[in-house]
Write a structure and sequence with these properties.
It comes from Nocardioides panacisoli. This is Phytoene desaturase family protein. α1 packs parallel to α11, α4 runs antiparallel to α5 and α8 packs antiparallel against α9. The protein has 436 residues and is of the alpha/beta class. The chain is built from 16 helices and 19 strands. The model has no long low-confidence stretch (mean pLDDT 96). The protein folds into three domains: 188 residues, FAD/NAD(P)-binding domain; 106 residues, no CATH class; 81 residues. A hairpin with an 8-residue loop joins β16 and β17.
């Protein structure tokens, strides 16, 4: 049995702690704030609640596997099934055209994009089809198995050495600018510039079309609550208010984690925050940068919210994203607005310019700047910024150059988002293995 210390109580940390405890290890989780969940948690104010980060997930198998491998199945814990989204999001463009993107159906997407213009549906489908072999390689060699940057294997090597950027791929495949905006959106929403993103990283559109998107009944914050309970069931020691200062390394190997209150001894350390915050790891990631989160405004409204899909994207300056969900007192409702780009006005005023005017309805508001989010969660919820294809080998995780130290979470996952972050914990568990 190894003594394991997990640093960070977001999804990556919670999932790592639960998996390693189930494998028989003695696990302690350190969280700097007073509560667990991180970007997976819930924002609460005056009777209103909002999802702090993601409001839906792709690849629900990642969450199901996490719960099944650590205890009772996810659906049993939720008391019901995950809810498939018929429409994942609506995109609105400056020419006042719009498209609602359905999930889990190639035919439905073809029909939706054909409404934008004749032949656009097939153009979209042909582009998305190019990612089927990409996903097959990524799934087998990178997402479901811990990869070794020194020896990635021939298929993954060929993929990651490709020089084509996402920007160039979209210009080649999609002559209509609106389709290109839709295709680039999953990466742009995370703060990346398509000119700096390798073309293969555009795979989320394939995942949406092939597997759909799913909501957690009651909000994704419920997953954090369930995992917190799972840690108690598995006997994990949880210490909140414990800011990790550094990994303690002796004779070239991790032997603990130092906090302001003392050192927690460890045979294995799992870092589920930005590794830049820990000097022992910072020098190994100095060539990378965190992706910048969006500006966020959580709104509590008097009366009914506008009738909108789960996610509305308004392609203008600034880029606006409106998400539904959350809970509210009787007679009230909720919205979350995110902004990216040149934000020269209040997000709610910007939204009103697009004929969604809720200014007179706002009774509660919680604003979070990018810096607020990074400081609150000890790292960017959208992980590492793409700065060209070399970014993949410049980041660390799940392995690190320090023996006994592993990285999970958005900064060490194959990508950001619930499925990738949940899967990062599975990769760490594979490397650590069961208690001997």
């Amino acid at each position: 049995m190894a003594k394991v210390v997990v640093v960070g109580g977001g999804l990556g940390g919670l999932a790592s702690a639960a998996r390693l405890a189930k494998l028989g290890h003695d696990v302690t989780l350190l969280e700097a704030s007073g509560s667990l969940g991180g970007a997976l948690g819930t924002v609460r104010e005056e009777g209103f609640t909002w999802d702090a980060g993601a409001t839906y997930t792709l690849l629900p198998a990642a969450l199901r596997d996490l719960f099944r491998k650590t205890g009772r199945p996810l659906e049993t814990e939720l008391g019901g099934e995950l809810e498939p989204l018929e429409v994942i999001r609506e995109h609105r463009f400056v020419d006042r055209s719009a498209v609602r993107v359905p999930g889990g159906s190639r035919g439905a997407q073809v029909a939706a994009f054909d409404e934008l213009g004749k032949g656009l549906g097939e153009a979209w489908a042909r582009h998305v089809d190019t990612y089927a072999p990409v996903w097959d390689v990524l799934r087998r060699s990178y997402v479901e198995a811990p990869w070794d940057p020194a020896d990635p294997g021939p298929e993954l090597t060929a993929l990651i050495r490709t020089r084509e950027t996402l920007h160039k791929r979209l210009r080649r495949d999609l002559r209509d600018d609106r389709l290109a905006l839709v295709a680039a959106y999953p990466l742009v929403a995370e703060g990346h510039d398509p000119r700096n993103v390798p073309a293969w990283a555009g795979v989320p559109n394939y995942l949406e079309q092939s597997f759909g998107a799913w909501r957690v009944p009651g909000g994704t914050g419920r997953v954090a609550d369930l995992l917190t309970a799972r840690l108690a069931t598995r006997g994990v020691t949880v210490v909140t208010g414990a800011e990790a200062g550094d990994v303690v390394v002796r004779d070239g190997r991790a032997v603990g984690v130092a906090t302001g209150e003392g050192t927690h001894d460890a045979d294995v350390v799992v870092v589920a925050i930005d590794p830049r915050r820990l000097p022992a790891l910072a020098r190994h990631v100095e060539r990378t940068m965190p992706a910048i989160p969006p500006v966020v405004a959580h709104l509590g409204l008097e009366g009914e919210a506008p009738d909108l899909p789960p996610e509305l994207v308004i392609h203008d300056e600034p880029l606006l994203v409106v998400r539904t969900g959350g809970t509210a007192p009787e007679g009230h409702s909720t919205l979350t607005v995110q902004g990216r780009g040149k934000i020269a006005e209040d997000l709610v005023d910007a939204l009103a310019r697009h004929k969604i005017d809720v200014r007179e309805q706002v009774v509660v508001r919680v604003d979070r700047s990018p810096l607020d989010q990074v400081e609150l969660w000890r790292g960017s919820p959208v992980g590492v910024l793409w700065q060209g294809r070399g970014t993949l080998t410049q980041r660390i995780g799940p392995r690190t150059p320090v023996p006994g130290v592993y990285v999970a979470g958005a900064h060490g996952a194959p990508g950001s988002g619930i499925p990738y972050v949940a899967q990062s914990a599975a990769l760490v568990a594979q490397l650590v293995g069961p208690a001997g």
